Amino acid sequence: MGANTLTPVIRIQREDFDLAAEIAAISAGRRDIGAVVSFTGLCRDEGATLAALELEHYPGMAEAEIARVAAQAAARWPLMGLLAIHRYGLVKPGDQIVLVIATSAHRRAAFEAADFMMDYLKTRAPFWKREHLADGTVGGWVEAKQEDDDAAARWT
Amino acid sequence: MTQALATSAPAAQARSVRLVYFAWVRERVGMADEQVELPEGIETVLDLVRWLKTRDEGYAAAFENETLVRAAINQTHVKPGASIAGAREIAFFPPMTGG
């Protein structure tokens, strides 16, 4: 079964990523994949008030925690591939922040696994956002949202 | 060290642990990491938090709400009641806001 041999790809990086290249890589040489679901998270400008987001992370634990979440997803759905990329450093409105790709024989598993990955990644991966405002000042740290905890609790 | 101290704690074994702080916890504490010798009687994460709060106003501000700040031992999430026995690295940080 595919899930047994699945090795999730986890990357924590400052650089941007290329969605098309990542989908090509995760699908390369395979004829058994029937579904590729991807989620890309972008930086919003919050009504033109935001100049950038500064993303701080806990090196080592960020990789380890996302790997633990990915292992849970791989155990729960019959996936053929699973990838998560999360950026750190300064990102500007319109820039990509996070990418999750899940592949499977059929769409349902891929949709659900990608959704699960994002819900858990938001509430468990050690990243913190700070706002840099359009007026040139450094704003506060973004506060965690109850709705994100509620979204993650759907899977338990 | 005075004679009184030396004789009152003959078997006390210094436990050294690395503490790391992130985001506004780091800013309030005033440093990203430190190595501390834990006094006796500190058994859980919450014990550690309460001891840190007595050190100065920066720690007191960081841990003002004792259960809001999250903790990880050796890079794994833990609850406030978790034992810190065997911990090499203990991290404190706000609720996560990645994704």
What does this structure look like?
Chain B: InterPro entries: Beta-grasp_dom_sf, Mopterin_synth/thiamin_S_b, ThiS/MoaD-like. The complex is a heterodimer of chains A (156) and B (99). Chain A has one domain: Molybdopterin biosynthesis MoaE subunit (Aldehyde Oxidoreductase, domain 3, Alpha-Beta Complex). The two termini of chain A are 24 Å apart. Chain A has 5 helices and 8 strands; from the N terminus they run H-E-H-E-E-H-E-E-E-H-E-E-H. Helices cover 35% and strands 34% of the residues of chain A. In chain A, helix 3 runs antiparallel to helix 4 and helix 4 crosses helix 5. The radius of gyration of chain A is 16 Å and the shape is globular. By secondary structure, chain A is an alpha+beta fold. In chain B, a hairpin with a 2-residue loop joins strand 3 and strand 4. Chain B has a 5-stranded mixed β-sheet with strand order 2-1-5-3-4. The termini of chain B are far apart. Chain B has a single domain, classed as Beta-grasp domain (Ubiquitin-like (UB roll)), CATH 3.10.20.30. Chain B has 4 helices and 5 strands. The N terminus of chain B is likely disordered. Classes of the chains: A alpha+beta (156), B alpha+beta (99). Chains A and B meet through strand 3, helix 3, helix 4 and strand 7 of A and loops of B.
